[in-house]
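Q: What structure does this chain adopt?
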Amino acid sequence: MDPVLIGEILAALMFFGVIGFLLLGFPVAFSLAGVSLLFGAVGLALDVFDPSNFGSLPNRYIGFMTNEVLVAVPLFIFMGVMLERSQIAEQLLLTMGKLFGNLRGGLGISVVLVGAMLAASTGVVGATVVTMGLISLPAMLRAGYDPKLATGVICASGTLGQIIPPSTVLIFMGDMLSGINSQVQMAKGNFAPVPVSVGDLFAGALLPGILLVSLYLSWVVFKAITDPESCPATPVPADEKSELLREVFVALVPPLLLVLAVLGSILGGIATPTEAASVGAVGAMILATLRWRLSFKILNETVIATATITSMVFVILLGASVFSVVFRMMGGDNLVHEFLSNLPGGTMAAVVVVMLIMFFLGFILDTFEIIFIVIPITAPVLLALDVDPVWLGVLVGVNLQTSFLTPPFGFALFYLRGVAPASLPTSAIYKGILPFVGLQIVALAILFAFPGIVTWLPRLIAN
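A:
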């Protein structure tokens, strides 16, 4: 049999082998590296893989550790965890709930707006969902909200951190797409390609993030009109109204200023994402200090949580590097290129197929697992077909937001199940999220039909 064909078959089997081991519950990083080494050994025995290819891994790992862009990841995580542990997010939730409580669906509206605010100031999905689940879910259930609507709003709003900057997913994708785009352009003879940066992805994701927030708010308003009993008003007691404006100012303005400082400095070209992330981390500590919430205990918990989350992500990245080397050297990239390039419908059909693959992988895999596996395989082909890298990155980000929401392994559902009362059935959480998954599919269709929603702001800033 042709060695090229043998290598491509092994590469395809390795991809499905990784999925199988993950479904069995093995750790992600070890599944990626272990299965890749196993298939590499098979490839060596069949003379279709050269183990000297692993010699590139040390340089790749050193590149990760010395990459200034990726330093922003732990800093943004620290910022988000600090805001959550110092109860700044909790105060924001309680205050916004009072502000919109007089409206039918007011608590749902406040959860969406606070979710967007926390996404723009933290980007940590788990902390956001847990915080809103602990505070907002009991209040919504006491107010008579339909449990399905309450849980759906909380889970969907908590995942906005995947797409609204500063998103750690966008940081990794920006770094990956930057390198892939440079390689693709040089292979096409363009030795001075327009660079793609994390800041470009942040700018491109801003309007799609607002689009998602608008869709979520529209659904809550729709439910308030068509089914008012599912989301009744919760009027604020008269004796609390006099202090409400002051509470709103104290709770809203400081985090808002922090968001403007971080995102404004990136989008305005004043600071790199890493520099802005350091401002955000210091700013979060300052806000905690001003609220008399900063203590050694909170700082210690924040540092440990940051190190844990960061280590988890980077260990997955290291395992994915082993997978990428074996997959590519056995001809997997050629197999993917032939498959996507020959699809009827051309470039747009290729994009649709990749989006569908990522969407269904979201049922069983985490966001980082998907981007570390799929982006290195498919992005070179799509960029070679002249797909805009910023549009592709943002489209992937919106698509993968569903990976936190889709059963059976939607992590946002697990986070909420962990803090929800035992009387709330898990089926209500699963049913409640379905309309919001549908809204995200609508958002994807809009971005697919109107790419300018993504590309307009980055081009405006560049000019």
